Amino acid sequence: MRTPEPFDLVLTVESHGWHDLAPWRWDRERRVLGRPVRLANGRAVYVEVAQAPRGLAFRAVAGGRLSAGEAREARQALATCLALDEDLAPFRARVEALEAIRASGRGKDLPDLRWALARGAGRLLRSPTVFEDAVKTLCTTNCTWAVTRGLVSRLCERLGEPAPLDSITFPTAAAMATRDERFYRDEIRAGYRAPFLVALARGVAGGSVDLEALRLAAPDQAGDAAERIRALAGFGPYATEHLLRLLGRHGHLALDSWNRAKLARLRGKRRPPSDRTLRRWYARYGEWAGLAMWLEVTADWHGDAPTWP
User: Fold this and answer.
1) Cα angle vertex 17, ends 242, 282, to 5°?
2) In this structure, are residues 244 and 225 in contact, taking their beta carbons and an 8 Å threshold?
3) Residues 288, 282: Cα–Cα separation, whole Å
4) What is the pTM assigned to this prediction?
5) Average pLDDT for consecutive 10-residue bins of the chain (309 residues)?
């Protein structure tokens, strides 16, 4: 698979926590990323990539021979997950211009993103479908990461389907829509999220909610995408902006208690700055403000001794 330059598989996979959630499998030592995906015809295929001297080595495993069309679809699904289609050239140009200002001493609030320029950071791991990203986003709200991991694992175990290499697919909207709130409260232990998961699944399965169209929308339609996401049950400011981030819309900061506290520590503040102050810090990045902020708060994840939250 061809990749943009520069590109680093580890930086992309570990750009945030999705790689730690089912049904992803990440072997950091071997630098191999894999997961099952469902093709348009309903067939489950296990796909994986590994860092290669030029680009990425790709493999697809299925129960029986894959057609050329199926192989292309599987490869494209993984390319989508790695955000290989996202054009980061405008972001890199903005960072380079602002780095000159920061280095001159005239941009004291600007983050030092030289590491991101040098290593090609900025691509965020996504799911094959916006529906999966939306469900996982709901599972991150108001809880610890251990709770999120448990919620997603139980969703796959209870509602996913067997796939090659002893893997289990992420459940479809149709599968999730067949269950009621009690199932999500008792079996998935989703708590207050139960009605939101039911509403999201039934909206997508029934056709009244078209999440996949959000990924195809033009960048200048970010405002419309935000309105459509905010209209979904359970999607407050953080969840809306987090999902926008995974859609490549970086104009918002997607602030939560963790990144507020992390920024206070990084900037030597005794308490988290106001959201107004945080927005001012990144205002000069414009439509890339949220990505600049995310790269600042996660920079220490990508050193010699990764510091995960």
Assistant:
1) 45
2) yes
3) 9
4) 0.95
5) 92 97 96 97 97 93 96 97 96 96 89 93 98 98 96 98 98 98 98 98 98 83 87 97 96 94 94 95 97 97 73
